[in-house]
Design goal:
With 309 residues, this protein is of the alpha/beta class. Helices cover 32% and strands 13% of the residues. It has nine helices and nine strands.
Length: 309
């Protein structure tokens, strides 16, 4: 389970989206090269966007065997007869980002098929590191009908995920695909990130006063979040950490988005929900303990430092 310090060539799908447009600059700052695979361009001078429909397996395979930039045509021909080098890693964030953007059937088809195609192409091309975006919604409350309680606190990766909505179900299917391919291709690491509510820098001042002062509005997000820039750090840590096989990680920041410490707050808001272990004083209910202990994640953007309430 070694951590590599060498920069990587990373194919990043969905890099023009809310999370990707912050993750990619972080990856570049760590010395990596990035190809953005997306239907929309990314406004970044050092990143080329290759437009591809990832629900088409042929386009997916070709995208992962593409040059990263036009200037790569100047490279000498490789020993295998081509000028193209496969990526060292794939980060797959491309997806319909929630329910009700498209009909449910299309959300399921698009998210599951694109994830399957990306993982399959990466594994068959010999790419040994794949990171996919799963979701906080898999814990079953975010898009539940009506008021629903969590099974227990904290929410950790061993939780019995039983969502009722299409988006979350599509993300669980992606996790299952990842587990299947990691078993079929020994030596391949496939990490699924259950990403919390993504917060961009400008959203703290705009949104957090309500989040903190009206905590009843944040139950569906488990009073947790992930700063988009810290998500970039998580992506970098995943790319560098080798030898874990299939893994699921909660990708969230460390502390709860309330003025009251975690345990008394949860006992007040969710009196019927048991706690299966002791929790730190300000620990986020959607806990990132595993990613801190296994990958060494240390948040750089705690909400309390970003906005004064």
């Amino acid at each position: 389970m070694a951590a590599s310090s060498a920069p990587k060539r990373i194919a990043f799908t969905g890099g023009s989206g809310k999370a990707g447009r912050h993750c990619i600059p972080y990856l570049l700052s760590q010395g990596h090269q990035v190809l953005n695979i997306d239907l929309q361009p990314l406004d970044h001078p050092h990143v080329h966007t290759l437009k591809a429909d990832l629900t088409d397996s042929g386009q997916t395979f070709n995208a992962l065997t593409s040059h990263f930039h036009l200037r790569n045509y100047e490279n000498p021909r490789r020993a295998d007869g081509t000028g193209v080098q496969a990526p060292d890693a794939v980060i797959h964030f491309a997806a319909y980002a929630r329910n009700m953007l498209v009909p449910d059937s299309e959300c399921f088809r698009g998210n599951v098929l694109s994830t399957y195609n990306v993982i399959e192409a990466a594994c068959k091309l010999g790419i040994k590191k794949v990171v996919i975006a799963s979701s906080e919604t898999t814990y079953g409350v975010c898009f539940a009908q009506g008021d629903t309680d969590y099974h227990h606190f904290p929410l950790e990766e061993e939780y019995d995920n039983d969502p009722e909505d299409t988006y979350a179900t599509s993300k669980l299917c992606g996790e299952r695909c990842a587990r299947s391919f990691a078993r079929r291709f020994p030596g391949t690491d496939i990490y699924a990130l259950r990403i919390g509510n993504v917060i961009e820098p400008h959203e703290y001042e705009r949104d957090f006063p309500e989040y903190v002062n009206k905590p009843e509005t944040r139950k569906r997000n488990a009073w947790s979040y992930i700063d988009a820039r810290d998500l970039g750090q998580i992506c970098d840590l995943c790319v560098r950490k080798d030898g874990l096989g299939f893994q699921v990680f909660n990708a969230t920041n460390t502390t709860i988005t309330t003025k009251i410490p975690t345990v008394p707050f949860l006992k007040e808001m969710c009196p019927n929900t048991p706690h299966w272990r002791e929790m730190d004083e300000w620990e986020a209910p959607l806990s990132n303990r595993k990613i801190r202990e296994v990958l060494g994640f240390k948040e750089n953007h705690n909400w309390r430092d970003e906005v004064k309430i």
